[in-house]
Each structure stands twice: as structure tokens, then as C-alpha cells.
Design goal:
Cyclase_SnoaL-like, NTF2-like_dom_sf, Nuclear Transport Factor 2, Chain: A, Ester cyclase, 5-stranded mixed β-sheet, 139 residues, alpha+beta, single chain
């Protein structure tokens, strides 16, 4: 797959996320996709799916906006802004009804069939916790 095709797949995943269509995101994942976050440890797909579904409960009307997207070779980098209403429990914090915003980066590596085989999410949750009126937990 070309870098442009991989970039378009990423935009399709963002569009699916904005429809709260988890399967529209995961259809682009290879069965053996590995997920990572700031801890650098591999996470299995079930854990990531649980987190994705939980975020849709914790943050209604969740919307992602792509601020920039770069593709080279088999990798795509995205800089995203998320906005939502805190409508359900998140990290032990009861729903506040507050509108919140957070920023994050994603890096995705694609195989030759155009499926994601490696997925990195880099979030800084400290500003989100501040918006919710709580100190960020220690890393």
C-alpha cells in the first residue's frame, strides 16, 4: 500500500470513531496488531477495545479532529484534538457534564495489505484531569 492509501485509511478510522463505530476502526486492524502507549509495553486488542468502548461511555459526543497527518513508507503519524462532554465515570471521577478537550498523537504502521500491525497512542492526560477538577494520577 502507498503512503497516501495508508493515510486515507487513517482518515477512515477517524471518521468511524466520530460515528462511535468501533468496528469501523477495527476493520482496519490486522489480527495480530500490537498496541502501545506511553509505557512502551505491548497491549492486546481486547484491552484497547475495552478502553475505546469505555471512552465512548465516559465522554459522550466525542469528536476527533485531525490537526496534522504525515505518511511515509508504511507509517502514518496523526496529531489529533478530541472534544467531548464528560458524561460518565472516567478514572474514578464521576460525570461532571463539563466540555473537555485533549490532544494526542498516534503512530500507525501498516502491512502490505493495508492493515494496521502496530499502533501507538501518546496521550498527556494531565490537562484533561485539570479540566475535570482533579489532579492527574502519578505515572
Amino acid at each position: 500500500m502507498s503512503p497516501l492509501e495508508n493515510k486515507n485509511r487513517c482518515l477512515q478510522m477517524v471518521a468511524a470513531w466520530n460515528r462511535a463505530d468501533v468496528s469501523g476502526v477495527t476493520e482496519h486492524w490486522a489480527p495480530d496488531v500490537t498496541h502501545y502507549n506511553l509505557d512502551g509495553e505491548p497491549h492486546d486488542t481486547e484491552l484497547v477495545l475495552t478502553a475505546m468502548r469505555g471512552s465512548l461511555v465516559s465522554f459522550s459526543d466525542l469528536r476527533l479532529e485531525v490537526r496534522s497527518i504525515l505518511a511515509e513508507g508504511d507509517r502514518v503519524m496523526l496529531r489529533l484534538t478530541a472534544t467531548a462532554t464528560h458524561s460518565g465515570e472516567f478514572a474514578g471521577i464521576p460525570a461532571t457534564g463539563r466540555k473537555v478537550t485533549w490532544h494526542y498523537l498516534e503512530e500507525l504502521r501498516f502491512n502490505e495489505e493495508g492493515k494496521v500491525v502496530e499502533h501507538w497512542d501518546i496521550f498527556d492526560f494531565a490537562p484533561l484531569f485539570r479540566e475535570l477538577g482533579h489532579p492527574a494520577p502519578a505515572l
